Amino acid sequence: MEDTRMDDKKIYKLLQDWFPELNCKKVPKESLRRDFQNFKAWMVTEKNGRQARSYLMSLHPAQPLRHSLGHSAVLQDMRLDLEKAHLEMEQAAQPTLQNYQQHKAEIGKNYSVQEQVAEIILSEICSLLRQCGCRMLLIYADQYYWIAVPEHAEKVNKFCKRFEKQFKANEVRIELFSISDCLKST
How many folded domains does the chain comprise? Predict the structure, then answer.
């Protein structure tokens, strides 16, 4: 049993290695380490006691254009023009939204334009992160969540395996996000 207890600290320790700002936070108590809601709260920090920053970002598939890039600690630290990036993401989604509006009757009600727009937004975020030397982990839970992590294949793979094991009871899945071949051609 002790091996399992020690194991459930590993994802928190790895995140602290990747993001030193999280070192000011204690690893949650054993009883809370496997709770995804607690994990989400643990991933949020403040800079200078004012600005909310998060290492875990959310994107709701029903409202994919309402994402908050400005709260991403990793993107803040890269000093990118996040308003410009947000605008570019909205522009990338416009052709899909316009096509859907024009052909809604033919497409039918079973098509989820929001899911396709979410895929476009996630792909745009992934491209932005790749330009900065990061990879994107995508978490499937009550909505989509993503974490920007350094490019280190072995650590990323270990993290994903441990994460899935740790939050299995929460029915949460994680994967290394890659841009879909369909989206690459558009």
Answer: 1
